[in-house]
Specification:
Distance between the termini: 46 Å
Number of strands: 5
Helix content: 55-70%
Number of helices: 10
Structural class: mainly alpha
Radius of gyration: 20 Å
Oligomer: single chain
Strand order of the largest sheet: 1-2-3
CATH architecture of the largest domain: Orthogonal Bundle
Order of helices and strands: EEEHHHEHEHHHHHH
Strand content: 5-15%
CATH topology of the largest domain: ATP12-like fold
């Protein structure tokens, strides 16, 4: 038995600027979120990104093909009302940031980690005036409180839409530093994604590629890149 699917019922998709922000219109009617709030977007670029997804629907509506719409809905219905909690959740990744947890062997893996991760930690050190504790192995070690406080403040500065994207960037990569590097355009997003995959790619080269693991990794990469695109649209001029 197949699930019920909503049919495409509109002919025209447009965007318009209003007093609350940029709206997406289906046959002149503004979109609303699942909680029935106005889908008021902070930039024209984000409104166009959402509108593109609605224009691309054909026959039946496929929510899985509308990541920007889902993210915008989440920003308005969920993140905006619990911004402090989401900020704390995202900032907490700094305590156990992937880039600070290093292998003790083999030497080749250690070298790969250092080559990819040290420049990012050095960048974060300069950019935010913080220090880091590197750890060998998986046992957690506390980062300096001043570092965590500084980075928490940076996350807290984001608006609900930016924070929604940041959550996915950090959750998919396991690194607050990588998320901030995307935000600040410190390196290309694909390069940052590859930096987050060093351990997994190393294991795959040693033991062979598992198809299920490959699919999972690709799904995570797509989520990461969709978050990059959403964030870039949020960072555009309001219009």
């Amino acid at each position: 038995m197949t699930g019920w699917a909503r049919k495409v019922f509109w002919k025209d998709v447009a965007t318009a600027k209003g007093p609350e922000g940029h709206a997406v219109l289906l046959d002149g009617r503004p979109l609303r979120t699942p909680a029935r709030a106005a889908l008021a977007l902070p930039t024209a670029a984000l409104a166009h990104l959402v509108a593109e997804e609605w224009r691309a629907q054909n026959g039946t509506i496929r929510p899985d093909s509308m990541p920007a719409t889902r993210a915008a809905n989440a920003a308005i219905d969920k993140v905006r009302g619990s911004k402090g909690d989401v900020t704390a959740l995202v900032a907490a990744y700094g305590e156990t940031d992937l880039l600070c947890y290093r292998a003790s062997s083999p030497a080749a893996l250690c070298a790969e980690q250092a080559a990819a991760w040290e420049p990012l930690l050095d960048w974060a050190t300069r950019r935010y005036e913080v220090t880091w504790r590197r750890v060998e192995g998986v046992m957690p070690a506390s980062q300096p409180p001043a570092t965590l406080a500084r980075l928490t403040n940076e996350v807290a500065r984001l608006n609900a839409f930016e924070l929604t994207a940041m959550h996915d960037l950090v959750a998919m990569s396991g690194s607050l530093v990588i998320g901030l590097a995307v935000l600040e355009r410190a390196e290309a997003p694909e390069q940052l994604w590859q930096a987050s995959r060093i351990d997994e790619d190393w294991q795959a080269r040693q033991w062979g590629h598992d198809e299920e693991a490959r699919r999972t990794a690709e799904n995570r990469r797509q989520t990461f890149m969709q978050a990059v695109r959403f964030l870039r649209a949020c960072q555009a001029e309001p219009g």
